[in-house]
Amino acid sequence: xxxxxxxxxxxxxxxxxxxxxxxxxxxxxxxxxxxxxxxxxxxxxxxxxxxxxxxxxxxxxxxxxxxxxxxxxxxxxxxxxxxxxxxxxxxxxxxxxxxxxxxxxxxxxxxxxxxxxxxxxxxxxxxxxxxxxxxxxxxxxx
Length: 142
Description:
- One of its GO terms (molecular function) is anti-sigma factor antagonist activity.
- Helix content is 30%, strand content 23%.
- The protein is α/β, with parallel strands linked by helices.
- It has one domain (22-137): Transcription Regulator spoIIAA.
């Protein structure tokens, strides 16, 4: 059995036009702003793509300059349990850093992301924000 998002078609045949390769299922970009480091994510966060998100957030948390790290998930279309694990581990990693600032997660009202976070109770432990500007200023998600 092939994992979800495999490069083969669902019937096991070779890929066809319009069927994305696994590296195309997610786009992770780092945006260095004067007031924050933003890890912007779009696409699907699943078992195949979560390691790319984990690596990008880990690199962003290694910055020595004291800027907060924001994970922007507003363009994510699917958010599975591996993504939840990445957020929990990354939040813990951020809390272990000198000069601790919580990992700030931008979800707005993106249901594919917000719903799993709420169902698992992670909304109680993650710093959630409506948009990047709110996250930079620290204005809470209400």
